[in-house]
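Bug #77: duplicate submission created two jobs. Keeping one. Sequence:
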Amino acid sequence: MSERTITEIFEQISQLKVVVVGDLMIDQYIFGKVERISPEAPVPVLSISRREMRLGGAANVALNCKAMGAEVCVASVIGDDEHGHTLRQMLQEQGIDTHLLRSSPQRTTTVKSRVISRGQQMLRLDEEQTDPLSSADEHPFIDATLRFLQIHKPDLLIFEDYNKGVLKANIIQRIIEHCKHVGIVTAVDPKFENFLAYQQVDIFKPNLKEVTQGLALQIPVLDITQLNEVHNKLSEHLQHKVTLITLSEHGIYYCQDEHQGIIPSQVRSLADVSGAGDTVIAVAAMVYAVTKDVQQMADWSNIAAGLVCEQAGVVPVDAAKLRDILIAKS
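Kept job's structure:
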């Protein structure tokens, strides 16, 4: 692929309108030093030096899309609480549209706090609510989202499911049905709870663990024959177009009709795998939306995931660095 073609694809991606629907969260990092044991209990005492808050979950998917230059809107229900206000502000500071972001007094904004000392994670604290949306939150959320899709007709909609209660089966089905009606490409990064609810989605992107859990099967050998069988089983349930399975250190598998393959992992210096799946679904869905080329979709998203794994914590893809690598590789 020529440099000109790569540049043209990046330009097309920058013109996309993307909606990200799902479970938004804050990833908080608490850094400090441990120099003594508590006199109250046999636990270390952390002297906090600084805190960082980053966009996580579906918010990180949105941030990755924005980092690639797309126009992005998030659709979700978060808590009407301090963390919810902070999350909304963080999204707006990144230029991400929050018109479809609803605040509910019945919900708790998800925050994952990681306590880190000397480069090692000591503890993770989760503040979250995983109950499904109540009817009072669900119906206005669906109505507003469908109205937005009808009026603005975005190019792409990505579901990011973290099993936190926003993506109920009814919400999933109604949004996919409406997207098909108005011609919007759909993609999902699923979790176990609603694994087979994403019927007729365009791109289905689980990881290997989610596939084995969701289909209740074992994959004895990670080869193309076994993974093609997985694709066929998924197709029986979902009638989707594209299967994209991340295989951890083994790379990524893709399949659409007769186009299929496994691309080896692209990580050069592994630091942290947090958020890599968010990067994969964001880059893969956008590349597919503009090229409809599944091999290119898998290749670009695989390289992008490798880039974010080279940095500590949840970070979005560096679009300029990704472009340079793709050009050097071409």
